[in-house]
Design a protein that fits this description.
Blueprint (H helix, E strand, L loop, with lengths): L2 E5 L6 H6 L7 E2 L3 H6 L5 H8 L4 H10 L4 E3 L4 E4 L5 H12 L7 E5 L2 E7 L3 E9 L2 E6 L3 E3 L16 H6 L4 E7 L3 E3 L5 H7 L3 E10 L5 E10 L3 E3 L1 H5 L1 H11 L2 E6 L6 H9 L7 H9 L3 H10 L2 H4 L2 H9 L1 E8 L7 E6 L16 E3 L13 H24 L1
Parallel strand pairs: 1-5, 9-18
Antiparallel strand pairs: 2-4, 3-4, 6-7, 7-8, 10-17, 11-14, 11-16, 12-13, 12-15, 13-14, 15-16
Helix pairs in contact: 10-14
Length: about 400
Amino acid sequence: MVVDVHDAMPSVGRKFLLAGKGGLNLTHSEPENVFVSRYGARREQMETTFQGFHPQDVRSWACSLGIETCVGSSGRVFPADMKAAPLLRAWLHRLRHPQAGHAVQFHMRNRWTGWHSPAGAPTRLDFDTPTGPTQVDADAVVLALGGGSWARLGSDGAWVPWLRSSGVAVSPLLPANCGFDRLGGWTDHFANRFAGLPFKSVAIAMTSHLGEPFHRKGEFVVTATGVEGSLIYAASKLLRDDILVQGQATFYLDLLPDLSVQRVLAEVCHPRGSRSLSSHLKSRLHISGIKMAILHELLSKEQLHDPVRLAAAIKAIPVTLSATRPLDEAISSAGGVVFEAMDDNLMLTAMPGVFCAGEMLDWEAPTGGYLMTACLATGVRAGQGVLKYLQRAA
């Protein structure tokens, strides 16, 4: 079998290497029933996919390439050296120099521009190449075109109209694991002083417009216009969908998640004598810096000097968001080719011989290894589907 990979980028695996800047979170070590729950509405489809390539297989695959993995304190799985490049080099070496079978041929700077004749030959493709336009015929095609985030690395969503015009159902691409703009923005003083700094050891809680609850401890970062970071990403689907439906979304920030409201109220009410409110809260509750600043930013003077209202705000200060950050800034995207448009092997029912894999499919998940595992698993499933398809056609 001859396998050709056409890539619009000058070199292979650019988004893979970008993921490596955070240590290359390959998968997660949590139980599989918990793991699959992270895919929300697409749990059933992803659970079926993982039967052919489950999270432990990711670690076995890396090990087969000579890359040992380790489990972090959060349960996330990384290469032991926390680097992406060695894994990518070993992977490409195996593909280019297999011990058996035919080597994979990589064609770089080959940008797909659509179907040459979609009605009669869905596996005849047009490409722009360094030597000019060309057409490629194939017995089967796997599209792994990414979603709509990080366009400079190739995931620009340009494929959406081409598939839709061929009768393939594609859900709109939306930001996932993304930052948000705060309604009304921050004051200049707060933004100039605290943009880029984290809230640590906090929790956020919300209930979506559909009644879905969310509560988690962690940390996130203030931006010039709003918020981003791991804790925000974990709630981003609910926040995004609330904004789409209601025009805004609100989460409640708990600055002291390890203390009860009663304990906080008791400390706030403790006599402070001649000390300022800031000194009092720092002394009694260790609130200072960005945590003190957010209270001044979002509370009125009356609220700040009312112990009951201040204590309530320390435990649940509302932060209202008005918009997601642009899709191209998001870590990943939601939407894409719906599973109902494909058969069990991820082949498009409207285009026999064409398979889809990766982030261009209509699933989303939080960060934590779920994105990488799903991309690899759907790639395996599509590849196995191609083999079945070709065997039937032989």
